[in-house]
Design brief:
15 helices, 5-stranded mixed β-sheet, alpha/beta, 396 residues, 34% helix, single chain, globular
């Protein structure tokens, strides 16, 4: 079933907070990509996303960004959704857990971000920006995002990107210049734009990521930041001008092949670092998650030595890292048992872990205090030995 759209769009008050400040222009701008050169049109991209069904809120489907997405997947069935958070066919259907990866590849959801909140962070970034998407086409078995979704976690694209960018811009205006350096950045306010999504994968679907990169390229007091496990060459066509930090997440390749389902190989993520730096991005690394298994230190030693061998000096001189020990979740453990139980032999280790109630009232498990502290210190020592150029911004 395909919808027919009226010639006019729904009434809209327009983008919020257009202050007219020359030094901080607000709102999405044109992207630098040329249609004939887009990786997202390639067979490799279509293997990642071969969308057959789109659950869409009516306003999102009728918006300019929604129309762009529907045009990109013309053969997809479009299904009405009252709310992108409440789709019983997806989130309330326990049987979907067995189709976890298939749903990620073939289903999209279109909605609008309603609560455009900027939250303090202080570890990886100064602030968590309102998201332009939620969910992912990749299937990392430890990912925290599905914990609120139930039994399916496809990408939900928020089509009101103009309001997302305007909200960030208004918040930035309120902050003024950054006066004191911190672990996030010495000069710029850092906004994480990919807390619940992977911006590199989102760029296969729409221009949301490109619009965010473009906006930050014009904001001299801010940087965007996002972690990714997917190498998307389309991002090299943008002009970030040093105002977007890409954090390539890496782990020992043997661990990644078991736990990082549908991601770019770790070696490819590392190899892409120089290209992204040369394209105008700041390039950091996430050493995460650190999963304690027999011989785990050797795996990380080998990975760090590989990084030291292949990364050029210009990457090393500006690189920094975050070290993040594994946190898992009871509900996600149960979902994983339906589609990838082998991963749980590594992730679910009650003899090493302790429960912790999360902010959304679900039960997480993390390594016991002594084990976690020892793991963090071991990682610091391994980095110091094998990649001493890699500054650790924080570790926990």
């Amino acid at each position: 079933m395909r919808w027919s759209y009226p010639s006019g769009l729904p009434d809209d008050d327009g983008p919020e907070g257009l202050f007219g400040l020359d030094e901080i222009p607000i709102g999405p701008g044109p992207t630098a990509t040329a249609p004939e050169s887009l990786f997202r049109s390639s067979p490799e991209a279509r293997r990642m996303l071969s969308v057959r069904r789109i659950h869409a809120e009516p306003g999102s489907a009728a918006s300019p960004r929604g129309r762009q997405i529907l045009a990109a997947f013309p053969d997809a069935e479009v299904v009405h959704a009252d709310s992108h958070w409440r789709i019983p066919e997806l989130h309330g259907n326990e049987g979907n857990a067995e189709r976890w990866v298939q749903i990620k590849r073939t289903v999209l959801v279109l909605g609008e971000g309603k609560t455009l909140t900027v939250r303090p962070n202080g570890r990886s970034a100064d602030w968590i920006a309102p998201g332009a998407a939620n969910g992912c086409a990749m299937a990392c078995s430890y990912c925290y995002v599905p914990r609120r979704k139930g039994f399916a976690n496809p990408i939900t694209v928020f089509t009101n990107i103009d309001r997302v960018i305007s909200r960030i811009g208004r918040h930035l205006v309120g902050q003024g210049p950054k006066r004191e350096p911190n672990q996030c950045d010495p000069d710029a306010w850092v906004y994480d734009i990919g807390e619940n999504n992977d911006c590199s994968v989102d760029a296969l679907i729409s221009d949301n990521t490109a619009d965010l990169v473009h906006a930050f390229s014009r904001w001299p007091t801010a940087k965007a930041s996002f972690a990714t496990k997917f190498v998307n060459p389309d991002l090299l066509l943008l002009e970030p001008r040093g105002r977007t930090r890409v954090r390539f997440s890496v782990m020992p390749p043997d661990d990644s092949r078991l736990l990082d389902i549908r991601t770019s190989p770790v070696e490819d993520r590392i190899a892409a670092a120089a290209d992204f730096l040369d394209a105008g991005y700041e390039v950091h690394f996430n050493l995460s998650p650190v999963v304690i298994t027999p011989g785990w230190e050797q795996g990380w030693s080998d990975l760090l030595r590989h990084m030291d061998d292949v990364l050029p000096r210009r990457v090393k001189e500006q690189a920094a890292a975050e070290v993040i020990m594994l946190t898992h979740n009871r509900d996600l453990h149960e979902v994983n048992m339906a589609w990838h139980p082998r991963a749980e032999d590594t992730l679910w280790r009650p003899e090493l872990q302790q429960p912790k109630r999360s902010q959304n009232e679900s039960w997480n498990v993390r390594y016991r205090d002594g084990i976690k502290a020892s793991g963090v210190e071991s990682m610091r020592a391994l980095v110091g030995t094998h990649a001493p150029w890699l500054r650790i911004r924080y570790a926990f």
